[in-house]
Amino acid sequence: MSKLRTTLLAVMLVVGTIALATGAAVGAAVPASTGSTASASATSATSTFADSTSVASTPTATQAIDADCDYPLERTDARGETIELADEPDAVVTLYPGDVQLAYQIGAEDRVVGMPIGPYTDDLETGDRTDITEDDGVTPVAEEIVALDPDVVLAANVALADEQLLDQLEDAGIPVYVLDTATSIDDVRENVAATGEITGECVGAEEAVDRMDDRLEVIEGALEDEEEPLAYYVSDDQGTTPGTETFQHDVLTAAGLENVAERADIEGWQEISPEVVVDEDPEWIVYPDWTDEPPIAESVEETTAYQDGNVVAVDDNAMSQPAPGIVDVIVNLVETVHPDVYADIEGDLEAIDEEYGDDVGTDGADAEETSDDDASASDDSDSSDDIEDDDAEDDGDGTFAIPGFGVATAVIALLSFAVVRRFRLD
Asked: In a 10 Å sphere around its CB, with 0-12 CB exposed, 13-18 middle and 19+ buried, how is residue 173 labelled?
């Protein structure tokens, strides 16, 4: 695993040479350090991948979106390129798994003709849609996309690392819209609005954001006078954790938790040493469910969180992909960490779900079933029987497939580069 993380940092430094790349895979911020021999470059990598204009301080403040589906449409993407659509698109290709989630969660799935099909989209109905990847569910193939002749391609920010792919698509006359990096919940709202315009589903985008905000407003009000226990989100066995200027930080704080990474003055994705974690002594440990137990150092088992069995797994796909479904993670965390609060607001949340319909602004999975699984993970430090980890297993050739486009997502987008061709993370 450490070898894979070392490779990730090397890839990140390659991506860092791209001036406009702000480091999101599927809009997700990528960790700035992986414990490699090149760790001295972590600070510069962090600054490359952070969005200097974002502020992650008031994550639950509602923000109405202004999606405009009047055509002809012009919209400037993350590259500074103006994308022009003469008519409402009928055929859309989503380049990466998070792009698919965005399209589906706003109700644009009927327009999607090509998408990554694999372990990172297996919660979605793929139907007769074309898999546009190299049969791995992650690596886009230009020829497959061109053959579909889509009206537009929706691409996460990490696509900026593959200029050849973008050039091939645009040389074929296919407009490509590259989403901005999402480093806060507000950024998620913005990307939902952009996706609505690009796919012609502005109404669905607005409803998805309205549902997000209605749920967040209920949660925020209920947690107003509650204590915020300290939490450590650990994403891998190198201790990589999301600090401020990540939407994952917003998720934790919106769920009524204090992020230990903020105390450690961490911005973006970086490693945090086990010594710091032990000194801070978090009351909760949160980790992605690609693994069946938290990937923590042995010393971290001394913390109050581990000793009390306050360990909770969250849906890696939802936590890693900046789409409306991130609120499901917040709800699940509230249910586990603040059970009394959740009991008070459960009816209100269910009423909101009924108002909008369960398929609007979610990750397509059964939220109640997911929350039950996540809650069970907190019963004791070893209880993760409901978490599937098949995709985290060694593929037999030294490579790993970890679900969800989590912190190592940049590797996926760069699999076409020979230096990382043999590595598959997330």
From this structure: exposed
Q: Is the pLDDT of residue 348 over 80?
A: yes
Identify each DSSP E strand in 172-288 by its residue range: 176-178, 230-233, 240-242, 258-259, 269-271, 284-288
**Helix 202-223 crosses helix 185-199 at what angle (to 10 degrees)?**
160
Alpha-carbon dihedral angle through residues 274, 29, 389, 384, given to the nearest 10 degrees: 50
AA identity, residue 337: V
The structure's pTM equals: 0.73
pLDDT for residue 35 is more than 60 = no
What is the signed CA dihedral for 354, 359, 361, 362, rounded to 10 degrees?
110
Length of the chain (residues): 426
State residue 23's pLDDT score: 33
Q: What's the start-to-end Cα distance of the chain, in Å?
A: 12
Instruction: Please name which of 140, 100, 24, 39 lies closest in space to residue 406, comparing C-alpha atoms.
Output: 24
What pLDDT sits at residue 293? 94
Helices then strands, each counted (H, E), the chain:
16, 15
Tell me the average pLDDT across 217-238: 96
> What does the angle CA 275 – CA 278 – CA 280 come to, to the nearest 5 degrees?
110
Mean pLDDT confidence for 96-122: 93
Tell me the C-alpha distance between 138 and 413, whole Å: 7
Q: How far apart are CA 59 and CA 297, in angstroms?
A: 30
- 274's tokens: 């086990």
Strands 28-29 and 24-25, sheet pairing: antiparallel
Under 8 Å between Cβ of 293 and 381: yes
CB atoms closer than 10 angstroms to residue 125: 9
* Alpha carbon distance 236, 127 (integer Å): 34
